[in-house]
Write a structure and sequence with these properties.
- The chain contains 9 helices and 3 strands.
- The protein is mainly alpha-helical.
- It has one domain.
- Strands 1-3-2 form a 3-stranded mixed beta sheet, with helices on both faces.
- Helix 4 packs across helix 5, helix 4 crosses helix 9 and helix 6 runs parallel beside helix 9.
- It starts with a helix and ends in an 11-residue tail after the last helix.
Length: about 210
């Protein structure tokens, strides 16, 4: 199993490679990050309910947000940072959101994510697939297809939106349970980096 020291080293390396600022729990920067998110959401219809829920659960929910300039930041929650596997899994999840911001731009991403439940469901499902893949790599544990990868209340998803997210996630998990890397840049990047830097931590035999 990956150690705490290996996990920290690996996360720092992956954040650096992605040109992302990694903010660990208890950092003074976390307060600035919460303010930045609030400022970005101003004026986006429907954003306040989603943002308020995320803010209230800041100890258990990690998030990705743009910084002034070209970089984004990942603020790791205390829950995500509690053990080595969840730290790496969460960073992989959040780097999918980093890519979404890079492709669409920070303002459009905020409008899409905070203003549309369907787009929010799709964005979170894609990130959840990659997070589940990395968890599988590091533990070898099979995926329970009946599991619920998203919290409908947290993300303010309707039953239809939640059903869409579940369908997308289930399709993605079948891909790696069949021995194939999911078709996401972050998934391939984490797999390649683990094989190069920490090959002994890969417990899923099909991906060693």
């Amino acid at each position: 199993m990956i150690t705490n020291e290996e996990s920290l080293m690996f996360c720092m390396e992956m954040a650096k490679a992605a040109d992302v600022v990694l903010i660990l729990p208890q950092s003074v920067v976390a307060m600035i990050a919460r303010y930045s998110m609030s400022a970005l959401a101003i004026g986006v219809p429907g954003a306040s309910a989603v943002l308020d829920t995320l803010q209230l659960r800041s100890d258990s929910i990690s998030r990705t947000f743009p910084l002034p300039g070209a970089s984004n930041a990942v603020m790791m929650s205390s829950a995500a940072d509690a053990n080595p596997v969840s730290r790496v899994r969460t960073l992989a999840h959040e780097l999918v959101h980093d890519g979404q911001i890079d492709r669409k731009g920070d303002v459009q991403t905020a409008v899409d994510y905070l203003g549309s439940g369907l787009l929010r469901a799709q964005a979170e499902a894609h990130a959840a697939i990659v997070g589940s893949f990395v968890h599988h790599l590091l533990t070898g544990d099979p995926v329970d297809e009946n599991a619920q990868p998203l919290d409908a209340g947290l993300y303010h998803l309707s039953p239809e939106e939640l059903g869409l997210a579940q369908s997308i996630w289930r399709s993605g998990t079948r891909t790696f349970m069949d021995g194939k890397v999911p078709p996401f840049v972050v998934a391939k990047g984490f797999h390649d980096a683990l094989k190069r830097l920490l090959p002994h931590t890969i417990k899923a035999e099909a991906f060693r």
